[in-house]
Amino acid sequence: MADTKYVYTFGDGKADGNTTQKELLGGKGANLAEMSRIGLPVPAGFTITTEVCTYFYDNDRTYPPELKDQVNAAIADAEKCMGKKYGDPTNPLLLSCRSGARESMPGMMDTVLNIGINEEVVQALIKQSGNEHFAWDSYRRLIQMYGDVVLGLKPENKNQDDHFEVILDAAREKEGVEHEAGLSVAAIKQIVVDFKKVIKDHAGIDFPEDPMEQLWGCIGAVFGSWGNDRAAVYRRMNGIPHSWGTATNVQAMVFGNLGDTCATGVGLTRNCSDGTPGFCGDYLINAQGEDVVAGTRTPKRVEETLQQDKPEAFEQLTNIGKTLEQHYKDVQDIEFTVEDGKVWMLQTRNAKRTGFAAVRIAVDLVNEGLIDAKTALEKRRIPADDLNQLLQPIFNPSDKEQAQKDNRLLAKGINAGPGAATGQIVFHASDAEETYNKDNDVQLILVRKETSPEDLRGMKVAKGILTAFGGASSHAALVSRQMGKTCVCGCDSLNIDYEAGTVTVAGQVLKGGDWISVDGFTGEVFAGKIETSPSEVMEVMTGNMKPEESEVYQRYAQLMAWADEHRKLNVRANTESHDAEISLQLGAEGVGLCRTEHMFFDHLDEMREMIFSTTVEDREKALAKLIKFQRDDFTHLFKVMAGKAVTIRLLDPPLHEFLSEHHMHEDPALAGKLAKTFGVTEEDVKRRVAELVESNPMLGHRGCRLGIVYPEITAMQARAILEAAVACKKEGIEVLPEIMIPLAGYKAEVDNQTAVIKATAAKVFDEMGESVEYMTGTMIEIPRAALTAGEIADTAEFFSFGTNDLTQTGLGISRDDYKGFIGYYTENDIMPADPFQTVDQTGIGRLMKIAVADGRETRPDLKIGICGEHGGDPKSVYFCHEIGLNYVSCSPRRIPIARLAAAQAAVEAG
Ligand code: ADP
Ligand code: MG
Ligand code: MG
C-alpha cells in the first residue's frame, strides 16, 4: 500500500492540490495551490494536511512516520523552484510556516517568518542582498517570533512584560526613532544578542542554530496553536468543530523589507464597505508581514498612492485582482508582498463584506457577466440578515467614529432592534406621546427599565428604545422588531431613577431631554447626538425619494426581483392596519397574523368595562362599543390588502394585561376612577383585579380559552371581521379573510370556536344581504395540537405555527424567564442556539413535521404557514421551506429578509 500523502506542494505554475480541498489543505493552502495552478506568482512551498493535525492530537503530539521524508522531498521541490537551498551558507532559502484552517480564524493561530537564519546564514544574506539592515532585521524577527510562538514567551495579557518589546522600546528610545525600521545596524545586531539571551533566560534553551530544528519547531507550534484556548473559544463562538484541525503551510520567503523597491500589503479586489468596484488596500514600503496590520506604522492606501509610488506593482496588482475575480467569481481578500518591483501572492480568500457591499457586489457581478442571478442569491454571498443594513437608518460613519474618539460610549446592551437612533431622553411613554403631539419632528429615545403593552404608543413615536432589563425576546425587543424600531435592551449598567428623572451610567448623570444615541446593530449607547442617515431603500418606499434617485434602491429592487423569481415560499406580514401599506412596499403577499389585541389596548376604557361586566348582557353592551373600532381597523386592512389573504387572530392575551396591579400602581387614581365609572366600591375594583391574577399567565386563561368561556367576545370579533369584509366586497374590493383561533390543543376547542364564527357569519350575511368566502383555521402552538393535527384538520381549514408559544410549551421554557441560563447553555454547547430565535429543528421542528404530515393527510390542500418570530429568521425560513410550508409570516421589516432567505433555501435545494 502506498504511503498516505500528507504533503502537497505548490509553486512554479503547478500544484498538487486545488481550491476544492479546503478540508484537507485548509483555506490558505487550498488557495495557494489554486493560485499557483492558474499561473499567479506564488512563492513555492507545501501544505501539510489537516490529517496530520488530527494524528498529532490523537498520538501525543507526534507525527506519522512517513511525514519526515515527504517534507524533505517537498523542501527539495521548493528549492528547485526558487533556485536557493534551505540552510545553505552561500545561497540560502528562507521559509515561513503558516497555519491555515478550513475556515479563516483571524488572529487565532500563529505564523513564523524568516525560518532558516543562523549566524552563518545571516552572513550569506548580507553578502547576497548587500543590505546588512535587512539581514539582521530578518534574523531579529525570526528570533522574536520563534520565542513568542514556538517557545511560548508571548505574554498572555497586558500586565505581563513582553521581554522582546521591552528591548525594542529601549533601543528605539536610545536612537530616537519611532520604528525599528529606523534603527542602526549596530543596534539591531545588539538586539539579536539580547533576544537570544531572553530565550536562554526565559525558555531555558539556546536559540536553535540548526535550520531543520527551527522548521520542525515551527510546524509543531502551528499544529499546537489549534489547541490553544484562544482558538478553542473562537471556534465555539463561530460554530467551528474542534475536530477539523488546521493545516500547516511552509513557503519560500519573499521580502518586502529589502529596501524601497519592496513593500508588503493587504487588499480587496473591490471595496467591501460599500461595494464600489476597484482594488483597494493598505501597503507599507520596506516592511514585512504583519507590519501592515500591526498598527505601529501607518500604511498607505493602494488606490491612492501605489500607482505613483510603484506603477509596475500597481499594474500587476490590478491585473491579479481581475484574474482572481474572474476565476473565483467573487471579491477576494488578498495578502501580497512586492520584492524588487515584483508582486508575489501570499493569500487569497472570499472577502467578508457589509450588507450594503454584499448587495452591490452580487448585483454588479451579475451585470459584469461573472455570475448568474441564481448564484448571486447564494447565502454565503448575502447572509439574509445583512439586508437589515439597507432597511434601517445608520449613523454617519465619521460622526460615530468621532463619538468613539471623544469617549462618548456609555454602555453596551443587547442589539435587539437594528438601526441607529439619536434623540432626547424621555422616561415615560405618555410623556413621549405628549411631546410628539406638540411637535411631530421631535427626536426621542424612550429610556425605561423595561417596557410593557401600555408603552406601545410611546414606543411608536420614539426614534429608539433603550431598556435596562430584559433580553433579546423581552417585550421591548419583540415590539421594536415588530415596529422596525431601533432598540438596545438589557443594558444593565443603566441606573434609572424615574422619580428623579435621571439615568446614571458610566459615572454620568443624564436627565430627561438630554441627547443620547443608540446603535441597534451593535448594542452601543453613546452620550450626545450622532447624526444618522435614513435608509435610502425605506425613503423610496415611503415616497420621500424617487426610485431613479437611488442606486442603492435600484440594486436592492433588482436583487429582490431575482429572489422572488426563485423562491417557493410565500411571504406575509405580521401586521395590524397601521403598517399594512409599508408591509406591501416591503413585499408582503398578505397578512399572516393580525393581532387584534393592539386594537383593545387602544381602547382600554371599553375593554375594562367588559372586564367588569358580570353578565353576558353587560359584556355584550361593552363589546358593542368596541366593535366599531375593530370593524374600522379591519376595513382599512382589507382595503390595503385587496386581493390578498388576511389572517386575523382572535383575542389572545389574558384579561389581566388590560387591568392589573401594575396598572393600579402606575396610576394611583385608577381604582377610584374605575369604581366611579362602574358604580362599585374601590374594594370591588381591587377584588376584580385580584381575581384576574395568574401565577403563570403564559399557561393561563388566554387564547381560545377566553373565547370559549366568553363566546360573546369571539362573536363580536367575527362580526367585526365579516361586516368589514362584506362592506368591502360591496365596494368591489376582493377580500380573503382567514379567521384564526389561538392556543387550541383540542379539536373540541376548534369545533367550539368555529361554530361561534359560523353562526355569526350566517347572521351577518343574512343582515347584510351579501356573503363573502372566508376560512377558519387554527394556530398550532401547543404540542397537543401538533400531535392531534390529523383530527384538528377535520375542522381547521388552515394551520399557522405559532412557534413562540410552541417553543415555550414544547421546551417548557418561558422566554421571559430564560435569561438566567440561556447564555450559559449556548456557550457550553448544551443548546446549539437560542430556540426563541431559531427553530429548534430536532424537537419543535419534529412537532411541526408531524402536524404538517398528519394535517395534510386529513386535508390535502391544508394551507400551512408560520407566524411566530421565527418566520423572519433565515435559518428557520430554510427549515420551513424544507418541510413544505406554504408561507412564512414575519414583522414588516423582516419581509425582505424572509424573501431572500426563501429564495436561498430554494436555490440551495437545487
Ligand atoms: P494570518 O493567517 O494571521 O494572516 P499568515 O500566515 O497569512 O497569517 O501570515 C501573515 C503575513 O506574513 C502574510 O500576510 C505575509 O505578509 C507574511 N508572510 C507569510 N508567509 C510569507 C512568505 N513566504 N513570504 C513573505 N511574507 C510572508
Ligand atoms: Mg494571512
Ligand atoms: Mg401564541
TrEMBL record:
Q: What cofactors are annotated for this protein?
A: Mg(2+)
UniProt xrefs under InterPro entries:
ATP_grasp_subdomain_1 (IPR013815), PEP-util_enz_mobile_dom (IPR008279), PEP_util_AS (IPR018274), PEP_util_C (IPR000121), Phosphohistidine_dom_sf (IPR036637), PPDK_AMP/ATP-bd (IPR002192), Pyruvate_phosphate_dikinase (IPR010121), Pyrv/PenolPyrv_kinase-like_dom (IPR015813)
Q: Which key words are in the record?
A: ATP-binding, Kinase, Magnesium, Metal-binding, Nucleotide-binding, Pyruvate, Transferase
Ranges for domain PEP-utilising enzyme mobile come to: 445-523
PEP-utilising enzyme C-terminal domain: from which residue to which, for each copy?
554-906
Query: Which residues does substrate bind?
Result: 595, 649, 781, 802-805
Annotated Pyruvate phosphate dikinase AMP/ATP-binding domain ranges read: 23-59, 66-302, 312-362
Q: Where is the active site?
A: 475 (tele-phosphohistidine intermediate), 867 (proton donor)
Q: Which reaction does it catalyse?
A: pyruvate + phosphate + ATP = phosphoenolpyruvate + AMP + diphosphate + H(+)
Q: Which family does it belong to?
A: Belongs to the PEP-utilizing enzyme family.
Role noted for this protein: Catalyzes the reversible phosphorylation of pyruvate and phosphate.
Q: What is this protein called?
A: Pyruvate, phosphate dikinase
Q: Species lineage, top-down?
A: Bacteria, Pseudomonadati, Planctomycetota, Planctomycetia, Planctomycetales
